Amino acid sequence: MSKHKTAEPYSDDYGARAVRCKHWRWMPGMLAEYPFSHEAEIQTFRVCCDDPPDMGSALPGFYDPATLGCLQRLVEDLFYPDAIATLHSRLLDPLRRETEKCQRVWWVSLSTGRAFDGCECAAEALIVALEEVDG
Predict the structure, then answer these.
(1) Is the CB of residue 119 less than 8 Å from the CB of residue 106?
(2) Could you read off the pLDDT of 65-95 as tens digits, one per residue?
(3) CB-CB contact of 122 with 68 (8 Å)
(4) Which residues, 6 or more positions from 91, have their beta carbon under 8 angstroms from its beta carbon?
């Protein structure tokens, strides 16, 4: 386990949304975070088995590429065999100079033509798809 300050201020919100979904499950390789103290420190560890029984208040750290990849796999598994989920993004203003902050919009498209769009990051786009399955 390691201790560090959280890197993404919004990741807890997305993590909480994800674990509330009926079809959520922890997958091997995901980064789990537990609150550690009042100073925004967290303990992190890698999940080593599929859907461990007692994760308590742990939230996934979607800033971690492996955890984001597992979330994409989870969404694909829910739509399989009808669809494959593909992440997309584009710049909202492609003419901005490189020194300015460029905002992107993210969406997930399925091979069936269905899309979940208008999201501020890849994790949110995948979570919207997961929430949609929950109905």
Answers:
(1) yes
(2) 999 999 988 988 887 766 666 666 666 555 5
(3) yes
(4) 102, 103, 104
